[in-house]
């Protein structure tokens, strides 16, 4: 509920501070006095985009602050979700700096415009001429029916499931597209993989093969060298081993003549043992050294296979070939498993469609059940508002398409007069008729949507007389369960208010500014009499004004 409103340095307003109560509040004033300015300021504090041109004094900042009593509107979850301090009396402040920058605060905590706008939607429903035109929009008509049907929980659940469903369908489409591309490469990748697997690649095998190849390819040269070495080492008279043995014998005899000779004897003995072991190793090498043309051919073929694979895959190491092999194996395996993945994803889509269909059916049935209530209410209220022959033909038909709010197509048809054919609202309803229909809808939605405050901006435009009196009655009836504001030019409507504010202009030192004041009972009589008869107020106008105020429902 809007309790206080402060506007500083906005349009024609220097400094305005007003306090509101519950019930029906009428706001009146001459055309151009500033009623739209007041509404513009309120819209800013509720999250509307700021315009630098709206600053009255361009050297000072514009401040708009509104206080709301929100303890009865279950808004704690919103404050928790947005990490804001909850206060039963919440203060919203909007500042527009001379630089053009805008700042917003909720209970002194800076917030984004999105957060401010989201809270604003929960606090005030501002009904303007633009919103009346929305009545012809199919999405708004759905909102009306769903409001009466109390479909909020169903629709929230449906929206969540629809989002998941669309994402799953996208994943399925991507899998199918990938399969189509993968199938084109599958045969080639399988061939490459088989080619690599047939090579039985292992890290270090190329070095081992190259060593074997060099040994087999040069067996004669190696054999000759080995024989020569054995001759050098092992010849009985002049071989190295024979000479070293002789040295050992000599220094063994000399070892008794001093430690230096003994040390040399020990070193010669160690060298002899090592050389003797080398001689034995070379002998074994000679024994195992033999030509093997078949093995040489096999080793060479294996090496050529590896070299060819390295060239084909543009790598230098066996480990890199093994990485390529792993990648190909994964690609081939993924292609082979795609069919199963696609089947699983298709089943998932079907399961989600079943859940969506079940929810859509619940939404559809709730809408069908709400239509008689909506139609009866609209026709009854419009009969009071001077449209006794107005009729609605509203129907919802389920389709095979998943829309954002279910699977229904809505037909919202209207006939204003007897014998007239039913047609879409935008084709058959006048502006005045649309205003009356919208008031009838708002009066019904007020029972279901539980808005704290609603503000009607000249919803009574285009009507007069008894119809305007009935419109005032309806708004006054709504104000028994919610706070209602009406900006009006009609005395019949203004008289229904529990309180009445007047917006007016005044000049001070050559500067015009807009003001707003709460009228006393006597001032209300004078204001309504002026609305009835003009500036020259007659005794009959005063009497009529008193009568209107006494007749307030």
Automatic annotation (TrEMBL):
Per UniProt, residues of the RecF/RecN/SMC N-terminal domain are: 2-507
Has UniProt tagged this entry with the keyword NADP? no
CDD domains (alphabetical): ABC_RecN
Matches recorded under InterPro entries = DNA_recomb/repair_RecN, P-loop_NTPase, RecF/RecN/SMC_N
Keyword line:
ATP-binding, Coiled coil, DNA damage, DNA repair, Nucleotide-binding
Q: Which residues lie in coiled coils? A: 328-369
- State the protein's purpose: May be involved in recombinational repair of damaged DNA.
Q: Which NCBIfam families would you find in this protein's record?
A: recN
What family, per the record? Belongs to the RecN family.
Matching PANTHER family: DNA REPAIR PROTEIN RECN
Q: What is this protein called?
A: DNA repair protein RecN
Q: Which organism is it from?
A: Galbibacter pacificus
